[in-house]
Amino acid sequence: MLPLNVWARWRPLRPNEPQGEIEREYSQGEYSPSSISIVAPPSSTRDRSWKSAASFAGIFDADDKNNTVFEKVIVPVLPHVLQGKSCNFFAYGHSGSGKSHTIIGYDYENSDEFGLSLAAARYLGEVLESKNEGDDSDKLGLGIRMYELRKNTAFDLLNGRRECFVRQGSDGQVYIRGETEMLENGKVRVRPIATKACWSFEDLRRELQVGLKLRTTGTSTVHDQSSRTHAVLELEIVTKSLLEARDAVIERQSELVPVGKYATDVYIEENYRGLIQNEEGKYVPNPDYQIDQTRIDAAEAKKAEFESCVKEAESYESQVFDSIAQRHVCIGGKLVFVDLAGSEYSDQNTGMKQTPQEKQEGRQINTDLLALKEVIRARALNKTHIPFRSSPLTMVLRQHFQASIDSHSAMILTVSPSVEQFAATMNTLKYGNLVGAAGGKK
């Protein structure tokens, strides 16, 4: 498997960074990988100059706009998305280096400054609009999901920041689901991350802004509005009928939960009553009670009936998807954008005293980022074991990795040119160098 494409993007020097810029140079060919070298500032006694391997797909200068990044990184893979494939994009770097500006953007009116996700949504929306012309039966649109991850918890940003939990099911798949909701007639519902259907670019832009207002920020060592969580934004090509079929699966699962719980309770109750503790403390058959197998079988039969309803709903969902795919091969095509939490806590020379909570956050962030690197490297080296379970982040991203081809995905390293941020910039480039060079090592 080919490695993930890794790009580096330098942000402009800010007016409040008077110490000057990092001295740097890079080789950049049109069709060959690029390398970067940076020179340690004369005042530094700890940091040394460093040069990467030829592991970067390309390098963006400080004056390159978001639109330039979009044209080079995202546009080439959009044909794959329109073939129903999945592609993943990561922004990695310390806080204040431009991750959120690259992935999300801050200007929602100027198309040249749209973040990659918004620019991709506009592009796909225009293509889907042309496909919908003359077909009002089941229009194609974009489903958007947006959530942030903190440890084992996810917060659904398009559903009032509802708290959800990352769990691995008995089928080996990872699910992100909210708290249990008690409904009428004893039904229990556990909703996944909400999908908002958008049938126009304006709809999607509005939903995105709603979600961004609920994202958590906090003060970091270099940025007073640092993202201390990983934000995941998914764009999927959907139709109304497909989303309705998925909702039906959730409803059937909701109906199954109390029935399944009752069957389990009956089994435990009957078997418990059928045992008695003897003088030695061991459990032996209770001579005064005969296990009511008929009661157990009846509860299990009811459970099987509801399980059958779930399978029927799942089968119908597959039928709907296949039917749409016969007309529109793009259905299910997905772009996944991940704005990773800032990695600056790995720098021990900040001089800023951290609270216990900040230290704990930093340790978890570093664990997540290390796990992500190892997953990418293991895939590039075609290893039989991919360590998805190393962190909640990689557990959540497992399905997206498995549905995608790494060479169609990318990581964008956002780096600061400030001399004051030399250590953080070097650490970011080293991380990307390891990710980008993975496929060349055997």
Automatic annotation (TrEMBL):
Binding residues for ATP: G93, H94, S95, G96, S97, G98, K99, S100
Statement: the UniProt record of this protein carries the keyword ATP-binding: yes
Example of a GO MF term: microtubule motor activity
Database matches in InterPro entries: Kinesin-like_fam, Kinesin_motor_CS, Kinesin_motor_dom, Kinesin_motor_dom_sf, P-loop_NTPase
Keywords annotated in UniProt: ATP-binding, Microtubule, Motor protein, Nucleotide-binding
GO cellular component: kinesin complex; microtubule
TM regions (residue ranges): none
Keyword Transmembrane helix recorded: no
Family annotation (PROSITE patterns): KINESIN_MOTOR_1, KINESIN_MOTOR_2
Record-stated family: Belongs to the TRAFAC class myosin-kinesin ATPase superfamily. Kinesin family.
PANTHER family: KINESIN-RELATED
Protein name listed in UniProt: Kinesin-like protein
